Amino acid sequence: MARSASPGAERLLLLSALGGSAARGRAAGVAAAGIVAFMRLISADAAVRAAPGVRWAMAGIAVAVLAADQAGKSLVLAAHPAGAIGGGWVSVRLVRNTGASGGLASGYPLLVTLAAVAVTVVAATAALRVRGRWVALCLAAVLGGAAGNLADRIFRAPGLGRGAVVDWIHFGGGGGSLDIADLAIQFGVLGAVIAVAAEGRARKVREAREAPAAREAGEARQAGESG
What we know:
Blueprint: H1 7-40, H2 52-79, E1 90-97, H3 109-129, H4 133-155, E2 165-171, E3 176-178, H5 180-226
Antiparallel strand pairs: 1-2, 2-3
């Protein structure tokens, strides 16, 4: 027959359970505080808070860019072309870039990786704080591209934090070699600039239309107060 636990053992088990519950409660509290602190970084009128559809679209764009970039690089690495494939304006040519854009600072891979981390953080912060929806969607593409290149820096050969970015899209005429992440970053930044300009112009037109009505309302209010 199994012996029943002694009162001392029962108290010890009870104290252990209470201690575990308290630890879990403290961990949950810390996590909740972290989430609240993070949400405070996002302004109340940011596009990411405007509607769930905007948030899902931003997440979908960023994940799609990241997935397409890594899939394209994996396919090229599996094919391992010996030279350029294709010709004309666009061709496929495998290039491993341990530096920044154009091979800059190729001798300092860790420094380039830290710079890639900073770019990714800046892109994420900007995407979460901007007010315009189209600007936010464009910056989501930039974020996905930055994350794609950062993944190469961290996980690919020759080692952790020193990995080489796999470039494979080569443009003729000295355009250099790129990847899908680079294209997403460049077109995302261009789209964000265009969206900012368009939204600014639309705001000025709206203010110009609303100005006469606001002026008439102000004059009517003054006339009523003086009367």
